[in-house]
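Tokens help. One example:
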Amino acid sequence: MTSPQVISVVGYQDAGKTQVVEALVRCMCASGLAVAVLKHDGHADAIAMPDWEKRGSDTARVAQAGARWTMVASRSGWLLHDWATAPSGVDDWLRTMLKTIDAEGAQVDVVIVEGAKMSHLPKIAVVAERSELRRLLDAGVADLVAVCWTREVLAEADVEIPQFHLSAIEELYTYLSKRNC
């Protein structure tokens, strides 16, 4: 498998990250690209046993009993859950995802990571308000390649990062394509 392009979509809760990811996925798929999405659930980092599956489900119960791996599967897909408590980060998650895709004999052209603000990945900052962009910049979020506004167009003149509105997602996609992100 050739190495896919990887881009991260970051922002604060309710800024519209998932909307931006969905719109980018649509554009990329319409262009014939195979796209994978990895979502970092930062809220789950703070609890011992994330509740990604229904509370009291069979897989949650066997995980509580000590199973390290659980899988929910049907004819339409599967979700493999590693309940390990060892620390890991976006690099480990990407490596695991890409190994699994490769083992399936599939190809992926682009991986969009939703989250991972402090990673080394190139990032799109998704913001609904000016204060959110300021907070991201002040927090030291680096490697920003673009800003995507999800509410009003409030472009910051003093920020030298290309800025787009969600309503013009095709322009953002074209920009990313030219950058090979």
